[in-house]
Structures are given as C-alpha cells and as structure tokens.
Amino acid sequence: MAKCQKCGREWRGAAIIKRYITLKPDVECPHCGESQYLTKKYRRRSLLSVLLLPLLIFIPIFAGFGLFTVLFTLAAIFSAIIGVQLFTIELSNIPETRRDGA
Ligand SMILES: [Zn+2]
C-alpha cells in the first residue's frame, strides 16, 4: 500500500485514486500535507504495463475470438492493470526526474 514518506502513514482509497489520476507531479499527503511524488521505479513499471496492452489486444484478435470476447477480455485486463497499479503505488518525498540517473 502507498505510504507517505514524510509521516509514514498509509494512504487510503480516495487519496490513492487522486494520486493515480492527477497529472500534477506532486499530491499532498492527506495526513501531514507534505508533497508526495511517484517513484521513478513505479512510473517505469506502470509505463511498461501500459505498453503491454497493445500486445494483449492483438493476441485475442489473432486467436480468432469474437468481438464481444475481445472487448470483454480487454476490459478485464485493463481493470486488472489499473487495480495492480493502484495497489502497488509507491510514494517519494522528492521529485524523481529522468535526470537523476540510474
Ligand atoms: Zn504524510
């Protein structure tokens, strides 16, 4: 679960969803108000899982499944990816940019 790196308290549903959907680099901790950023590791991982999507779209199409099955599979995979991303969110005290190296 997401944990504030300043006060160490866990973020719950609404705060995590806000952190997930907002495009701003920082979101304030609901407990202590400290700005929290997504870790670079997390952002890289979530980007990778999004890049997997096209692959997962084409497999059922080439396997000859019907349109409904393909759409249903897609919706299920999409929900699963978002679910995993929400549950594995990692917070950082400092903005981690691409220039930080590693
Ligand atoms: Zn906090």
Describe what this molecule looks like in 3D.
InterPro entries: CxxC_20_CxxC (IPR026369). The chain crosses the membrane at residues 47-65, 71-89. This is TIGR04104 family putative zinc finger protein. Keywords: Membrane, Transmembrane, Transmembrane helix. Helix content is 52%, strand content 8%. With 102 residues, the protein is mostly helical. It has one domain. It has a 3-stranded antiparallel beta sheet with strand order 1-2-3. α2 runs antiparallel to α3. The longest helix is centred in the middle third of the chain and has 23 residues, at 40-62. The radius of gyration is 17 Å and the shape is elongated. The mean pLDDT is 88. The structure holds zinc ion. Zinc ion binds next to loops.
